[in-house]
Amino acid sequence: MQKRELGGIRSELFDDIQGAEVRTHRSPKPQPKAEIPQTCAKYPHIFSPLKLTEKYTMKNRIMCAPMVFGSAVVGNEYGNAAYAPGKYSKLEMPAAGGTAMVSVGEIDINNLDAKRMPLPEVDFTVTEGEAFNAISEYAWRIKRHGAIALHELCHPGSVKPPIPGTEIWGPSAGTTPEGGTIIEIDESMMDSICNDFATAALYMKEAGFDGVCIHAGHGFLFTQFLSPNFNKRTDEYGGSIENRCKFPVRILREMREAVGPDFIIEIRVSGREGTEGGVEIEETTEFLKRCEGIINAVHISSGTYGGVTSESAVSHGIFGPKGYNIKMVEYVKQHTKGIKVGIIGHITSPEMA
Ligand SMILES: Cc1cc2nc3c(=O)[nH]c(=O)nc-3n(C[C@H](O)[C@H](O)[C@H](O)COP(=O)(O)O)c2cc1C
To answer: Which residue CA neighbors atom 23 of ligand 1 most closely?
Structure first.
């Protein structure tokens, strides 16, 4: 069995990592389930199960929002593998603490139009080898504590810096703040994006994840199609909210067809962009209504990377407002059917949750 080089870094919590054999979901090692302390009996709703699909039920209603860029554990010339123990333990800790669903953070769905950051590249058509094992190990570590493991998938649309060898794609042509040229997405580009999302989702399924979390907020590709501030199209994908929803819904539908009914598709949306003329919760909800029967769950965030005010911030630090997405979650719950609705955004007490 292959040995992983971990660059001499030790994790205090998981000291079994150093020099450990590479483990994937294909070689599971049963672990005792985390016990829920008695005090949690005060909050029976939070600690009651929540069924997502026929196959998957969250053991409670606590989820860990996507963190840690997925490919950050893949070895490359910059030596990212040396940081792997810390990355794994950051996501294993919530699972070990009893969280029901943990999502690994962003990974670009391809290394061209979707490439946003200078991270190691992953070829989603190759479901074996070092990169695949490294990503698979997230799933193994999360699942061994009885938690559901998701991996976030992302296409940033035009919110990407000019990276040599890559193009910048968006719903409408234009120029990015850094001076990059945005190419308007045509039908063949849409086909390629749908195919890349489906391929990446299948890769995660093969790697042992229970589902994917699609980044459909914060000003990335999905928001750009939904938002009149980015989407100036005059064809069937622009104008009315119905038209602006078409391509985002098509991506999700084609992904669902690829992964089958039981694999979890969760999405993260910005309830509102918080920018003048940007999408508000009513339009986001119209989009979610069109996702009924395709996705299993959504969690509501807010803001956009294109915005510059505190209203459009994608997160507010620990001194920021608390529970700032709660009202939007209530609205979505009232107006949608069959989609489990979650929340992020400075939830600091069980009462607030
Ligand atoms: C260390 C760290 C890493 C994060 N990585 C991601 C990421 O990969 N993808 C993403 O969509 N959000 C990422 N986020 C944002 C969180 O998922 C979440 O939206 C943010 O922390 C605000 O929610 P909260 O106040 O409930 O923590 C990250 C946040 C932190 C603190």
So the answer is: 345
Q: How far is the CA of 105 from the centre of ligand 1 (A)?
A: 8
User: Which is nearest to 252 in space by CA: 283, 219, 297, 207?
Assistant: 297
Q: What is the pLDDT of residues 205-257, one digit of tens each?
A: 999 999 999 999 999 999 999 999 999 999 999 999 999 999 999 999 999 99
3-class DSSP state of 329: helix
Residue 20 lies in a domain: no
Residue 108 lies in a domain: yes
> Which ligand 1 atom minimizes the distance to the CA of 105?
8
Angle formed by the axes of helices 130-143 and 84-96, nearest 10°: 20
Check if 94 has its Cβ closer than 6 Å to any atom of ligand 1. no
Q: Is the CB of 87 under 6 A from ligand 1?
A: no
Classify residue 25 by its DSSP letter. T
Q: Classify residue 50: in a domain, yes or no.
A: yes
Length of the chain: 353
**Residue 175 belongs to what H/E stretch?**
strand 174-175
- Rounded CA separation 292/22 (Å): 39
Q: What is the mean pLDDT of residues 186-206?
A: 98
pLDDT tens-digit map of 80-90: 667 888 899 99
Element (H, E) at 327: helix 326-335
List the domain range (segments joined by +) for residue 285. 40-343
**Is-contact 183 173, C-beta < 8 A?**
yes
